[in-house]
Automatic annotation (TrEMBL):
Pfam families: Mem_trans. PANTHER family: AUXIN EFFLUX CARRIER FAMILY PROTEIN. This is Auxin Efflux Carrier. Its main location: membrane. It is found in: Cell membrane. GO terms for biological process: transmembrane transport.
Amino acid sequence: MTGAVLLALLPIVILIALGMLLRHRRFLDDGFWPQAERLGYFVLLPCLFFHGLATAHLKSLPVGDLALTLILSTLVVAALVVAMRPLMKVNGPAFTSVFQGRVRFNNYVGVTLAAGLFGAKGIALAAICNAAIVPTVNILCVMVFARHGSAKLTGRGILKQLVTNPLVVGSLGGIANQMLGLGIPPGLEPAMRALGAASLPLGLLCIGAALEFRSARQWVGPVASSSVMKFLAMPVATVLVARLTGLKGPALTTALLFQALPTASSAYILARQLGGDAPLMAGITATQTVLAFVAIPLVLTSLNIVVNF
């Protein structure tokens, strides 16, 4: 397992490092990266999720158990984070960044790793994971922003953030297409497949370009606590819930993988838009992205041993 995970991580490390190098050397104009991230978030990644779910053989996959395991474990950790709020010496906007750092995950890394480990089946499992926890995480984060962010959201604003999320729309659209048996038209299917495939390398390059470590040194406590919760508490909660749901095999490995992913760079964008602490969010994202290359193999190996013991 460890060797397979490290091998699947290798292209991710290379692409993220290349993104950092391209940004540092200013090979591309600085304005390219935000636009590339926007393209990936609103077009390419939704195409990947829609195509993956619409064409997957879901009958052979434990869709219900996988979704239930992910949703319940995420809710457990989110409730724990909120309960710990009085113990944290941070203001409201900073708490929103800490919360995002503990529950939000990086789709690009997750899908790339799942595909590297399990091929087409991994992409289908990753799409199910996204369909389950993207809506869950976004609902939780928007609610926390509404309560603790400096830009207070109305009920209408919360609803808009949820129903217009492109990842939610792409995932649910793919599930609906699958359930209705509509299929994807022959001319459109290869185009969507190509767009989805382009999302992974472009997204990883953007992650490397967006990494910002200066903020991490200013917020050692919140950054460290977010990382401990992300790489320890979340996977442990997932294993405990999986024992109740009976989830096992590649589906459990994929669930553990997604619950041990570093925070997405989109968390920084959300922090800027909804009144969070954006510099702190940048520090958490950068630190977790680096730690993930050690934490993910350890989490998958150790917890799979525990599960199979």
